[in-house]
Design brief:
The structure is a single chain. The protein is α+β, with helices and mostly antiparallel strands. The relative contact order is 0.18. The two termini are about 25 Å apart. The protein contains three helices and nine strands, in the order ββαβαβββββαβ. Strands 1-6-7-8-9 form a five-stranded mixed β-sheet, covered by helices on one side. A four-stranded mixed β-sheet has the order 2-3-5-4.
Length: about 200
């Protein structure tokens, strides 16, 4: 089935930072987490309410928020406009990239910026047939000496589509190791009371 295809990349730290190596049998939250500032924003390719594309303005807002973890949706990653890498450089943060679909010259999707380290990243396909491709980016991170597993999502516009994607997200959350607290962020397109 299409939604089972995924792309995974692990980084070089043995045992995903060491201390979580033997944590799979432990409860979901195996230690107290101190404050971590998390932001989620659909940047819509850097286009503001004035319909101008201005990534410098996006950078300025993100700098002011001063977050430890930033989940972004509708980000361009192309030969001409690699917004994901540009934002990561400007904010001096590590980048995990989760493409949702291929476009001319590159891809379009979700990004996670981290003021810390990234141990592994995986892209889950949550697309619904005959609808725009959608993905969920899963990233294991270490921030402020704490481990967390992040999920950056962008759901579809239709209620039935979002119902399918919410069920798929629950499947993903149940399937991942319980080695770290799990934080789900994203643009769920839930304007009214619905499946999400």
């Amino acid at each position: 089935a299409r939604h089972h295809r995924k792309r995974e990349r692990s980084h070089s730290w043995a045992g995903h930072f060491g201390q979580v190596r033997n944590a799979r049998a432990l409860p979901y939250v195996y230690h107290h987490m101190g404050p971590i500032h998390v932001v989620s924003w659909n940047i819509q390719k850097g286009i503001g309410v004035d319909f101008r594309r201005d990534l410098e303005r996006t950078k300025s807002v993100l700098r002011a928020l001063d977050a430890d973890i930033i989940g972004l949706q509708e980000v361009l990653c192309t030969d001409r406009a690699n917004q994901a890498a540009e934002l990561a450089r400007a904010l001096d943060m590590k980048l995990a990239w989760g493409p949702a679909r291929t476009i001319r010259g590159g891809t379009f999707g979700n990004a996670l910026l981290v003021r810390g380290m990234i141990a592994s990243e995986r892209v889950h396909d949550v697309s619904v047939p005959h609808q725009e491709p959608r993905s969920c980016l899963e990233v294991l991170v270490k921030v402020r000496e704490q481990i967390a597993r992040l999920f950056v999502c962008h759901f579809g516009l239709g209620p039935r589509e979002r119902t399918h994607q919410a069920k798929r997200l629950i499947e993903i959350l149940r399937s991942v190791p319980t080695d770290a607290p799990r934080i789900v962020i994203g643009d769920f397109n839930e304007w009214y009371r619905g499946p999400v």
